[in-house]
């Protein structure tokens, strides 16, 4: 009886071992499948995020390029406008500081009140104005 009991226990042990191996293999296969599905889903999500970010960066880069292109145009136009206004100001006649009186085809400079015409001495005598005190 001991031999048959031993044989039956051995047979039972081997069948349980086979069953455990089958269950373990099935569980590992299920876990591997689940991990594969989760990994693929995570990779798809990451790929979509990367593509979305790349497209957004490309759009932003295009805006930066457009801004840079037109910034230079605006800067050049500003420089040209400043240069044009400077030339126009330089070429426009200065407003007369003293009023001019015209009579008989002649023009006479009218001196402001408080000034006196004089003859000043230098290398040669010349006309000058004596300004009022405090000027």
Note down, in words, how this protein is organized.
With 135 residues, this protein is an alpha+beta fold. The chain contains 1 helix and 4 strands, in the order H-E-E-E-E. The protein has one helix at 2-91, and strands spanning 100-103, 106-109, 116-120, 126-130. The strands form 2 sheets. Strands 1-2 form a two-stranded antiparallel sheet. Strands 3-4 form a two-stranded antiparallel sheet. A hairpin with a 5-residue loop joins strand 3 (116-120) and strand 4. The protein is rod-shaped.
Question: What is this entry, summarized?
Answer:
The protein is of the alpha+beta class and 135 residues long.
The rounded Rg comes to 52 Å
* Outline type: rod-shaped
Distance between the termini: 142 Å
How big a fraction of the residues is strand?
5-15%
Structural class: alpha+beta
Number of helices: 1
Give the strand line-up of the largest sheet: 1-2
Q: Give the quaternary arrangement of the chains.
A: single chain
Averaged pLDDT:
88
Low-confidence stretches: none
Secondary structure: helix percent: 55-70%
SSE pattern: HEEEE
Characterize the biggest β-sheet: 2 strands, antiparallel
Q: Report the strand count.
A: 4
Can you tag this structure with a few keywords?
single chain; 135 residues; alpha+beta; two-stranded antiparallel ribbon; 1 helix; 4 strands; 67% helix
SSE topology:
Elements lengths: L1 H90 L8 E4 L2 E4 L6 E5 L5 E5 L5
């Amino acid at each position: 009886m001991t031999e048959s009991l031993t044989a039956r226990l051995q047979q039972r042990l081997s069948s349980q071992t086979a069953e455990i191996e089958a269950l373990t293999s099935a569980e590992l296969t299920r876990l591997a499948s689940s991990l594969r599905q989760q990994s693929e889903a995570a990779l798809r999500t990451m790929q979509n995020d990367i593509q979305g970010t790349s497209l957004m960066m490309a759009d932003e880069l295009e805006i930066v390029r457009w801004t840079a292109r037109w910034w230079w145009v605006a800067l050049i136009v500003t420089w040209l406008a400043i240069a044009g206004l400077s030339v126009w100001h330089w070429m426009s006649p200065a407003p007369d500081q003293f009023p001019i009186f015209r009579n008989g085809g002649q023009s006479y400079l009218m001196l402001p009140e408080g000034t006196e015409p004089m003859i000043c001495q230098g290398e040669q005598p010349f006309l000058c104005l004596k300004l009022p005190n405090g000027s």
